[in-house]
Each structure stands twice: as C-alpha cells, then as structure tokens.
Design brief:
566 residues, mainly alpha, Cytochrome C Oxidase, Chain A, 2 strands, binds copper (I) ion
Length: 566
C-alpha cells in the first residue's frame, strides 16, 4: 500500500506557476477570500473573549456594574454562539481555502461561489448576533427548546450553516477538479484533512438543519403552538458532537502537516494520519446520545451503543498523540538532541506557532481524560450539568481548537499578506498566558463541578445557600484564570491588528508542509477514497439514529409551549 515518498505530494509547496517568478501568494484573489473569512473569525473571537471575562467575574460573584440575570444569560449566549459557531466556522472556511489552494496547487474551483458562501454566512451571523444583543435570544448556544428565541436567531444560524455548505461545495469541486487532473497521486495530506472536515460537517449539519426547518423555525414563527424538546435535543446532538470534530479535524490537519515542519522534523507516518481522519469521518456523528444520558424517551441500550462509539472515537486521538510525539522527537533529534528525553527541550518553544500547538496538544490530553469520564454513563451522572462540563470543553474546544487556531494565525498571516508578525514579544508570550489562564480556569471548574456547582447559573452563591460556600472560595481563582485568558486573547488580537495594519510588506515565507517518514499512500487505495467512506459514514448514522428517532416519533408526544424568561 505504501508507495515510495513522492516529494511533490506533501513536500514544500511553491504555489507560483512554473513560469511565474514570484512564489508569493500575496495579493492573489483567493488570499482575499481566505483573509475575509479569517477576519470575521478573529473579530468574533475578540468580542467573545471580552464578553467572557465578565462572565468569569460574575460567576465569582464579583460586583460588576450592570450585573443581572438578563445580562448574564445574554452574554453566555453571545459568548457561546460567537466562539463555537462563528469563530470556528469562519476560521475553518478560511483554512480550507488556503489548504485547498496551496496543497492542490491549482486555482480554487468556484472562488466566486466561495464569496457567496462568505456573505450568506456573514449575513446570517449578523442577524443572529443582532437579536442576541437585543436580548431576544438568550437561549444559550445549544438553544434547547422550549426556551424560545426570536425567529431571526434560528434563521440567522441556519444561514450561517447554509453559507458553510457553499464552502463545502467549493471544497469538493476543487478536490474533484484536482482529481481529474491528477489521477496518479493520492490527495495531498492537508486536503485529505479538509475533505474529512467537509464530510463530517455535511453529515452533522443535516441534524441541525432538520431541527431548524421542521421544528424551531415554524414554531418560533407561530405556525405551531408547541415543540417536542426531546426530538429537538436529539437532532441538536446529532449535530452538536460532530461539531467539535469539525473544528478538531482542521486543527489536527495543522498538527500533522505543519507542526512537524515548523519544529524542524518530519511527519512520523502519513498513512496513520489519513487513517485518523477517516476514523473521524466514520465515528464523529453516531455518538450524540452521550449528551442525552439523562433525557427520557431514549432507551438505555441506544445510549450504550453511542457510548461505545464514543470510546472508539478516542482511538484516533491516541494515534495522534503517538504519531505527533514521534514526529516531534524526530524534530528534537534533528536539532541535535541525543538523550532519552532532552529532545523536548530542543524544540522551538519560543516560536508562537510551535508553542501554541504544543501547549494545545498538552491541554488536549487532559481534556481527553475528562472526556472519557463524561462518556461513561455512571460517572456522567456525577458531573452532569455541573461546572465540570464548562471546564471540560474549555480544554478541548477552547484550547485544543482555540489555541491551535491562534497559533495557525501566526503561521498564516505572514504567508497571506507578506507582512512579518508585529509585536513578536506579545505573540511569544500569548500561548503561555493562555496555557496558565486555562489551567487555572478549567481545573477550578472541574473541582467545583465535583463539589456540585452547577453550570450556567447566574448566582453561584445560590442566594447564600451553605452548600455553595465550599465552591465559592475557589471561583475567585477561576476568575483570575479568566482575566489571564483575556490578557492572552488581547495579545493575540493586538498582534493580528498590528500586523495587518503594517504598511511595510516583505517577502512572504513559502507554505511548506511536513514530509512524511516512510512514504505516502498510493492513489486510489482505500484511505484515498472519500466516496466510499462517506457512504460508510451514512450507514453508521442510519444504524445509530434511525431507530431512536423513529421511536421518538411514534411515541405519544407532548409538545411544550415556548418560554422566554426575559
Ligand atoms: Cu459529545
């Protein structure tokens, strides 16, 4: 299966045409499309990070001006929506354009369509954000009914997804065009990762689209009096779990293809990386019931099946830990390390890209252990709906993904704009601030969660209840963590703003990807066949969801009327 290494498949990419003297991407039309997507992502991130610091203080019962339940739930919704849906989706779309263009070395197929997707997604985002800020959609990012938002929240969110579907279409078209032109090569690894993300996303969003179109939009428009909360939650988590893989697979793609290169080493195994992405395609979606362990109406047997699938999806992350540590050891030894462990110290810890990703990986290992606990039916009951949960996803989503995307920005910006990073000291210290702040924030949240502190509650003192005293001593520490995270986020935003507003441009560094040790796969072999794996993934979803949803539909159903507390 393994072919001899083909340097052109994954090696250094010179994106200029053979006759074009300039290898630089600067000024090309596709870079504008990518930068527009990154721009929306980073703006959303900056706003959401600013909102978050107030929440962390509020949870510590700090006396903030304007502190009220209404503002608290409005801000939790805005933070979750901007971080989980806007920052991530736009960032992944931007990254997709970059990886498609530079790894396939051909124009993006449907750049104009890509712009259309961008505008549709942006219009939807602005619509949803406007009603959130107006206080008409304080339904949190999970928008569980019967909590009811203004219809424009649901319509806006749907448009964001529709915009991302257009991006998916452009990615698939670009891939297919490349395939026609280059039948003898396996798809380059960066594009392999993007295609896996596309497949995960299309299959996942079918769930949320069904929830929006059949349940939430008609109900919020008043065409229907009531809504079925369990069915809505089931469709949400069909989407909600693979959503995290839609962020994580592109993050992993950066870890596999760029990190070893930037560390000065090689990718330990190209086929293993491809296998990991295929496993994500197969197992990302049929796991959603692990978010519904306490929901009635779904039998324990089906929850168990989704639990087992959840443990399968841990496996590609173990492979990733193994492959990437091996890749970094190769880098450390290439940098002159000879001892058993001193290769760790040889790695470029002062480089912002490397430090971001390495620290993100470190924190992800903690998040993974927590995830295994969450997925276990019995242990889940202990931490269900407690502060533990927010502690968990700030390690995984907030750091494994968030910090990776920040680090990726340091790598992308000079290559897309031709401008060297400004404020390099800020960029160097930012990942460490994030690391320290996140550990303080998340460890405290895990601990207070075990003490019983609920998540998503405005008044963490529970009106002065004695049970709350045990955790109130700790929440101050998580608030300090929140302030450090905010400082880190602002360092990141400052570097981005200073870099893009810099008038002086230089030579853009080349987009270079890691070479694999051993070789890559042969074109058209099993790991190179996305159509086959998409069909297999659909079969998995049907097996995992057809009966539970059929069961919910055939039961006697009691709809709930809408509820807006504010
Ligand atoms: Cu999940």
């Amino acid at each position: 299966m393994i072919d001899r290494y083909d340097a052109s498949a994954t090696g250094v990419i010179d994106i200029g045409a053979a006759t074009d003297k300039s290898p630089s991407a600067v000024g090309a039309s596709w870079t504008k499309l990518a930068l527009a997507n990154f721009g929306v992502a980073i703006t959303a991130f900056g706003i959401a990070a600013t909102i978050a610091v107030m929440q962390a203080m509020s949870r510590a019962n700090a006396d903030l001006p304007f502190r009220s339940p209404r503002i608290f739930y409005l801000s939790v919704t805005a933070h979750g929506f901007l971080m989980a849906l806007v920052f991530t989706t736009f960032f992944v779309m931007g990254l997709g354009y970059v990886f498609a263009r530079v790894s396939l070395r051909r124009p993006i197929e449907g750049e104009r369509l890509g712009w259309m997707g961008f505008w549709v997604a942006l219009a939807g985002t602005l619509m949803a954000v406007a009603v959130i800020l107006a206080g008409k959609a304080s339904v949190l990012y999970t928008f569980y009914p019967p909590l009811e938002a203004h219809p424009l929240f649901y319509i806006g969110t749907t448009l964001l997804v529709v915009g991302s579907w257009i991006w998916c279409f452009v990615m698939v078209q670009s891939y297919r065009a490349w395939r026609r032109e280059t039948p003898s090569k396996p798809v380059p690894l960066p594009m392999h990762g993007i295609m896996a993300s596309v497949i995960v996303w299309v299959l996942a969003t079918l769930g949320v689209a069904a929830e929006m179109i059949f349940l939430l939009i008609p109900w919020s428009l008043g065409f229907r009096e009531t809504v079925d909360p369990v069915l809505a939650r089931t469709l949400f988590w069909w989407f909600g779990h693979p959503l995290v893989y839609f962020w994580l697979v592109p993050a992993y793609t950066l870890w596999y293809t760029v990190l070893p290169k930037e560390a000065g080493g090689k990718l330990f195994s190209d086929p293993l990386a491809r296998l990991v992405f295929i496993l994500f395609v197969l197992f990302s979606t049929p796991v959603g019931l692990h978010h519904q362990f306490t929901d009635p109406g779904i039998t324990a047997g089906w929850k168990l099946i989704h639990t087992m699938n959840t443990y399968v999806i841990l496996f590609p992350s173990f492979i990733t830990a193994f492959t990437l540590i091996a890749s970094l050891e190769i880098a450390g030894r290439a940098r002159g390390a000879t001892g058993l462990f001193n290769w760790v110290a040889r790695l470029p810890w002062r480089e912002p890209f490397f430090a971001s990703i390495a620290l993100a990986m470190l924190i992800f290992s903690l998040g993974g252990i927590g995830g295994a606990i969450n997925a276990a039916y019995g242990m889940n009951a202990v931490i269900h709906n407690t502060a533990w949960v927010q502690g968990h996803f700030h390690l995984t989503a907030g750091t494994a993904t968030g910090l990776t995307f920040m680090g990726a920005t340091y790598w992308l910006l000079p290559r897309l704009t031709g401008k060297p990073l400004r404020l390099p000291a800020f960029a160097a210290v930012q990942p460490y601030l994030w690391f320290v702040g996140m550990l303080m924030f998340s460890i405290v949240n895990h601990a207070t969660g075990l003490m019983g502190m609920p998540r998503r509650v405005f008044d963490a003192s529970y009106g002065g209840h004695p049970a709350a005293e045990s955790w109130l001593a700790w929440t101050g520490l998580s608030a300090i963590g929140g302030v450090i995270l905010f400082a880190s986020a602002m360092c990141f935003v400052a570097v981005v703003v200073a870099t893009i507003t810099n008038r002086r441009g230089g030579d853009a560094p080349a987009f270079a990807f890691a070479e694999p040790v051993g070789g890559t796969i042969r074109a058209g072999t099993i790991l190179d066949r996305f159509g086959f794996w998409t069909i297999a993934a659909v079969v998995m979803i049907v097996l995992a969801y057809a009966y539970p949803i059929f069961d919910l539909l055939r039961m006697e159903r009691f709809g709930a009327p809408g509820l807006s507390p504010f």
